[in-house]
């Protein structure tokens, strides 16, 4: 019978907190400058990982690094466009040469452009697929070249994999494709001891959803945002929308030894919305 090795520290101490410790591990979080990515980077750092906060918006990534350092964690900021495979390779290679290894990759960067499919220009479809879907391929390929057994890739998908809504077709195609890449990478990298899973957040208060609070003049309107949040909350049996930390805790679980026998799985952090 083949069993997955568990570290001596975890086996001997059976201290539950230790199962979630990431001391000595190195993580990259893309889209780490905002929302779910910032929360994930902060939680992984709090668990002891050294975190590379990678984002198109370098200033935002630097802000995340400041938050992590204020809490006593270790992090560096890197600019990356996840839709550019060469830039993603540079990010991964730079991480290994600078920090010595790569154990965790969170393919999280994403954008949403809302438009009905019948009106969708080809270049917009390409952009949404490049940032949300091809990025998962490029990041995972680059990581697979350098990761050792015991490593983990986590892809931020979306609750849109379970629904169809007006104007989100390009985003849904990308995220559903991301689910397919998650499962296929899981079977292809499993024999090397690399796990690949997804987190599918429900409606979360972050950059992507805050765009919905912007009116025709380009102003963010809190009342408009709150109204939409109330509507989205009613689609969850828990009657609430998510905060970025909710998905970050799922990322922590999937990055840690606690999930050592979980691969090809998608955790739905949506308050049960896809059941009703
Ligand atoms: N907020 C939600 O309700 C929700 C729900 C389901 C899934 N998601 C997913 O969660 C992930 C994070 O989104 P968020 O909600 O935190 O939004 P956000 O806008 O707050 O954060 C996205 C981050 O990605 C960065 N980014 C965008 N394009 C990039 C690129 N080409 N290269 C590198 N970085 C890039 C942005 O600069 C930003 O910092 C996305 O994949 C999104 O699709 C969000």
Description of the structure:
It is a single chain. This protein is of the alpha/beta class. It has a single domain (15-204, 242-271), classed as Rossmann fold (3-Layer(aba) Sandwich). It has ten helices and seven strands. It has a seven-stranded parallel sheet, with helices on both faces. Helix 7 (169-189) links the parallel strand 5 (152-156) and strand 6 (195-201). Helix 3 packs parallel to helix 4 (58-70), helix 3 packs across helix 10 (244-255) and helix 6 (122-146) runs parallel beside helix 7. The N and C termini lie far apart (40 Å). The structure holds nicotinamide-adenine-dinucleotide. Nicotinamide-adenine-dinucleotide binds at residues 30-31, 33-37, 55-57, 60, 80-83, 108-111, 131, 156, 158-159, 201, 203-204, 206-209.
SSE arrangement:
Blueprint: H1 8-13, H2 16-19, E1 26-30, H3 35-46, E2 50-55, H4 58-70, E3 74-79, H5 85-99, E4 104-107, H6 122-146, E5 152-156, H7 169-189, E6 195-201, H8 207-210, H9 222-233, H10 244-255, E7 266-269
Parallel strand pairs: 1-2, 1-4, 2-3, 4-5, 5-6, 6-7
Helix pairs in contact: 3-4, 3-10, 5-6, 6-7
Bound molecules: nicotinamide-adenine-dinucleotide.
Question: Strand sequence of the main sheet, in spatial order?
Answer: 3-2-1-4-5-6-7
Distance N terminus to C terminus? 40 Å
List cofactors, ions and other ligands: nicotinamide-adenine-dinucleotide
Kindly provide the radius of gyration, computed on alpha-carbon positions and rounded to a whole number of angstroms.
18 Å
CATH topology: Rossmann fold
Proportion of strand residues: 5-15%
Would you report the number of β strands? 7
Global morphology: globular
């Amino acid at each position: 019978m083949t069993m997955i090795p568990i570290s001596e520290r975890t086996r001997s101490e059976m201290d539950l907190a230790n199962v979630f410790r990431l001391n000595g591990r190195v993580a990259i979080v893309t889209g780490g400058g905002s929302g779910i990515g910032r929360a994930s980077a902060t939680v992984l750092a709090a668990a002891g990982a050294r975190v590379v906060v990678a984002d198109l918006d370098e200033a935002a990534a630097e802000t995340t690094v400041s938050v992590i350092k204020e809490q006593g964690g270790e992090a560096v900021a890197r600019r990356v466009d996840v839709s550019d495979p060469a830039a993603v390779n540079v990010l991964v290679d730079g991480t290994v040469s600078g920090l010595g290894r790569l154990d965790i990759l969170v393919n999280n960067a994403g954008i949403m452009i809302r438009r009905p499919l019948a009106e969708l220009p080809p270049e917009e479809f390409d952009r949404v697929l490049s940032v949300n879907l091809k990025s998962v391929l490029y990041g995972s390929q680059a990581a697979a070249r350098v990761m050792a057994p015991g490593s983990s890739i986590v892809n931020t998908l979306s609750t849109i994999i379970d629904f169809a809504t007006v104007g989100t077709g390009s985003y849904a195609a990308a995220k559903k494709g991301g689910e397919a890449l998650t499962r296929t990478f899981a079977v292809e990298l499993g024999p090397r001891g690399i796990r690949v899973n997804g987190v599918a957040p429900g409606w979360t208060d972050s950059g992507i959803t805050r765009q919905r609070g912007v009116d025709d003049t380009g102003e963010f309107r809190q009342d408009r945002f709150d109204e939409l949040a109330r509507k989205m909350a009613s689609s969850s049996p828990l009657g609430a929308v998510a905060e970025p930390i909710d998905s970050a805790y799922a990322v922590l679980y999937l990055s840690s030894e606690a999930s050592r026998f979980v691969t090809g799985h998608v955790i739905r952090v949506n308050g049960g919305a896809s059941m009703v």
